[in-house]
Amino acid sequence: MKLFTVFTSVVVAVACLLQPSDAQTTIHLRVHTVKTSNTCYLQCDSGKYCPNGASSCQAPPSGQCFNPAQGVFQTKCDAGFKCDNGKCVAELPICYLKCDSGKYCPRGASSCQAPPAGQCFNPAQSVFQNGCDAGFKCDNGNCVHS
Predict the structure, then answer these.
(1) Does residue 12 belong to any structural domain of this protein?
(2) What does the pLDDT look like over 26-48, one tens digit per residue?
(3) Would the keyword Signal turn up in this protein's UniProt record (predicted)?
């Protein structure tokens, strides 16, 4: 009798596994495709750049500068950037010094500094500013999420 019970249980279990349920019949697969912008990944010599859609390195056309963030040549660099060797670069370099608590190294500086009176350091822009942006507060001279 025990063997019959075990056999019946196995048959019922197999039958349940082989019969699709509602959840199994409604499975959908999503296929996500992303179109690329034909980004050029060539390593170019100094002063030459490979814009999107190109297959070779090029010197900037006369009066233009390469914007690496967008992969295009343009006539003028965005605010806060300058054209150097045919490429748009930050006017003031980022300072990577590790500073003591309450001191910060803003963009363009070469040493750690305490914030000027009434100002707070904005780490997202690497500058001292009056107060902090919405959603942030000044803590120990540094803008932090409130």
Answers:
(1) no
(2) 555 555 555 556 888 999 999 99
(3) yes
- Residue 120 and residue 143 in contact, taking contact as beta carbons nearer than 8 Å: yes
Q: Which two tokens stand for residue 18?
A: 């082989």
Cα–Cα distance for residue pair 71/75, rounded to 1 Å = 13
Whether the pTM exceeds 0.70: the reply is no
Q: Which residues of 42-66 are buried (b: 16+ CB within 10 A; e: fewer)?
A: eeeeeebbbbeeeeeeeebeeeebb
In a domain, 104, yes or no: yes
State whether 118 and 140 are in the same domain: yes
**Number of domains observed in the structure of the chain:** 2
DSSP, residue by residue, 89-134: EESSPPP-----TT-B--TT-SS-BPPPTTEEEETTTTEEEES--T
- pLDDT tens, position by position, 1-12: 565 665 666 555
User: What's the domain range around 51?
Assistant: 38-91
How far lies 100's CA from each of 30, 55, 89, 93, 113, in Å? 50, 47, 28, 20, 9
